[in-house]
Design a protein that fits this description.
The structure holds 2 protein chains of 2 kinds.
Chain A lengths: L1 E4 L1 H9 L4 H7 L4 E5 H13 L8 H4 E4 L3 H5 L11 H9 L4 E3 L8 H8 L2 E3 L1 H10 L3
Parallel strand pairs in A: 1-2, 1-4, 2-3, 4-5
Helix pairs in contact in A: 1-2, 1-3, 2-8
Chain B lengths: L8 E2 L1 H8 L3 H9 L6 E4 L2 E5 L4 H5 L3 H34 L1
Antiparallel strand pairs in B: 1-3, 2-3
Helix pairs in contact in B: 1-2
The chains are: A alpha/beta, B mainly alpha.
Amino acid sequence: MKVFLDADVLFSASYSMNGASHEVVNHSSVILYTSNECMNEAIRALKKYDKSLDPIFFEKIKIVNVTKKDALEYDIYVFDLSDAHVVAGAVKSKANILTSFNIKDFKSDLIYKDLGVSILKPGEMLSYQRNILV
Amino acid sequence: MMQQVQLRTYTPEQVAEIYQVSNNTVYKMIKEGRLKAKRINDRVFRIPQSELAWVEKGLDPDILEKEKIDEDVLDSGARDVLKQIRKENFYKSSK
């Protein structure tokens, strides 16, 4: 099972040790991916709060490189073009699940139908792991 | 003055009915610590409403609590910060 993490999940996982995102990253039995873009966004946002990305994430999460050209191929799957790179990252990493807090930013039904990627919030991901993957 | 508490509790039998499992399953879950319950007397248990969060929200109570921790951080301004950075990066790479 491959799971792609959006920037807000990386951010939350580093910001709080007690949240659902942190558990997804640290106690996950799945293979975790993110993209250079999402990683960059999370690092910049954390910096604004005088925090940094947990160094262990670099060991636990594989990073795929997503270009602007890659992102533009997935413009039909988002409402705002600036979110397209997330879908591109999920496809490039061959993820089954995209984990994000902003599910409404993505055309979830179309993404599942065309690309076979389900979009779940971190809590739903934990629940899926606990109840389905055991 | 004492504040009025309106939280309710459930018997294992009521929880069994809600979850559509046997009474024994509920007692087993209590014994294994998978269901929080208060032992009132010998074999008399009461289960807090929070343990039924899954019925309403689709998530176990501990997961719900963890997700709330993240959502609170994001709602306190971080969501907007992340959005702004995403847009900045996108338009910067478009130039």
